[in-house]
Design goal:
Radius of gyration: 17 Å
Order of helices and strands: HHEHEHEEHEHHHHEE
Shape: globular
Structural class: alpha/beta
Distance between the termini: 42 Å
CATH architecture: 3-Layer(aba) Sandwich
CATH topology: Rossmann fold
Bound molecules: S-adenosylmethionine
CATH superfamily: Vaccinia Virus protein VP39
Strand content: 15-25%
Length: 235
């Protein structure tokens, strides 16, 4: 079992439909606000890598020339295709299809809450691929990176706070209990998650050829996790 296999099923990560909808709504609004202008009036060309079900991707797509939604799980891609396939500027793709995006054509690549599921070797390869796809001056936004000293308890508290604010506080308790007894916990124990310090992330991005900086705030609701921007140097 790999993390990619794990995500190819319904998971207990979201405590209920409201939690899932609130999560994707928050991410989409933050992303829409973070979009660079792009070179044309139609807006930027964007790739959301490891996008998940991206339930509010239409909010982002409205402001983009093209929005590539890329996810490693076939089940996720089929749901994305069903929901957004009719939008003319949304392209659903697998990581193996990234080569279909013209080199040097993207203004922004977003990678939110994905690094923890990637091996170091996979991350190194992806940093090179993403750099090839970005325009000079294009941005790589990597968010929700888990620092070494942040464990599951911080995630629990952040979830309860989000639940309290959005009307699913009680459901959060049941959801957390479900997660505790679920495959997620067992898979997490078996496969582990990748953690990085701020210095490690900045060094990784720099040695992959990006101009790197920490971005605050993080995307999403958990400010114990970190976000970074890597800019491809102009020629
Ligand atoms: C925690 S979800 C994050 C989804 C979304 N980015 C968000 O912000 O909610 C992780 C996603 O990464 C995807 N993923 C995991 N490993 C991947 C890989 N190697 N290549 C592409 N996608 C991957 C999973 O299928 C899953 O949809």
């Amino acid at each position: 079992m790999t993390w990619r296999d794990y995500w190819n099923q319904d998971t207990p990560i979201y405590v209920n439909a409201r939690h899932k909808a609130v999560h994707y709504d928050v991410i989409a609004r933050q992303l829409a606000d973070a979009l660079p202008p792009g070179d044309t009036a139609a807006g930027p060309a964007v790739l959301d890598f490891g996008c998940g079900e991206a339930l509010s991707a239409d909010v982002v797509a409205k402001r983009c020339q093209v929005l590539h939604l890329c996810d490693g799980a076939e089940l996720v891609r089929s749901r994305l295709q069903q929901k957004f396939g009719l939008l003319g500027n949304v392209v659903v793709m697998s990581p193996e299809q990234l080569g279909e995006i013209p080199a040097g054509s993207l203004d922004l690549i977003v990678v939110n809450s994905v690094l923890q599921y990637l091996s170091r070797a996979d991350l190194d390869n992806l940093l090179a691929t993403w750099k090839r796809l970005l325009k000079p001056g294009g941005q790589l936004l990597i968010a929700d990176v888990i620092p070494h000293d942040v464990g599951p308890l911080t995630d629990v508290l952040a979830l309860l706070k989000l639940g309290a604010k959005n009307g699913f506080f009680i459901a959060s308790f049941f959801g957390l209990a479900r997660t505790f007894f679920s495959d997620y916990r067992k898979t997490r124990a078996a496969l582990g998650l990748s953690h990085y310090s701020e210095a490690e992330m900045l060094a990784l991005l720099t040695s992959a050829g990006y101009t790197a900086r920490r971005r605050q705030p993080n995307l999403g609701h958990n400010q114990a996790r970190m976000a970074f921007v890597g800019v491809v140097k102009a020629l």
